[in-house]
Amino acid sequence: MLIKVTLYFLWLDFFFFKQKTAYEMLRSLVGSEMCIRDSQYNRRVPHAKYLAWRDVEKLCGSVDSDLFRPYIVFSGVQYGNGENVFNSIFKQAWCLGEEGIPIYGSGKQRIPMVHVADCASMATKLLLTDEPPAARYSFAVDDGASSWTDIVGAVNEHLGNGKTFVVPPSEFCLHDNVEHFTIDLTVEPQSTVALMDDEDWVSKGGFVENIETVAAQYRKSRSLLPLRTVVLGGPLAGKSYASREIAE
Known about the structure:
This protein is an alpha/beta fold. It has helices at residues 19-25, 51-61, 87-94, 116-128, 148-158, 178-181, 191-194, 211-221, 239-247, and strands spanning 7-14, 35-37, 68-75, 77-79, 101-104, 113-115, 137-140, 164-167, 186-188. The longest helix has 13 residues, at 116-128. The chain is elongated. It starts with 6 loop residues before the first strand and ends with a helix. Residues 1-9 and 15-33 have low confidence and may be disordered.
């Protein structure tokens, strides 16, 4: 007796646009009004750093049979559980750098994002569901749609000193992961997010709404402890006054 078994393969990808091409993609929309849905995945144009990823994606997508069916999920910029892409930003905030955290360009650009645990949950549900979606391409993002200024403000509030500085486009190349932080796009996922129930989410509301949890995960993962100072002195030496001044 022969039993037919269908194997499902999942390729997790990031979706990057060359900014100029992104604007040309939907000429009637500009800036944060630009929106893309699952069905428009083929309008993506990769950043130069990720051309090889596009080739792998095309290779995966070209395979289709009754026994082997690939799914490709385009993940938003991932955050949480210790940080990877955002590590440089969190580190700058934690170290209380004199300049503060960088604001790239106007800071109004909206960054599609997803908590790494939520991305993993979406991928797992996609592979284990009894009725896989017909569409093989989908996006994995949360409901945040936060601007870069909002993201920086949230990090500063919980880890930093409140300071920021503006980085002009001519200096973008001097900063790590800047291609993640300058994309300006709103994503409306359909098939992947439909598999998630409210209780499955770690950060459905997005980065800013859940910054307290994200910051706690960063401190725990990186084994970070608050800075501590000991003020010593004899009686009536002004220890309490000095301590208050230092704290402020």
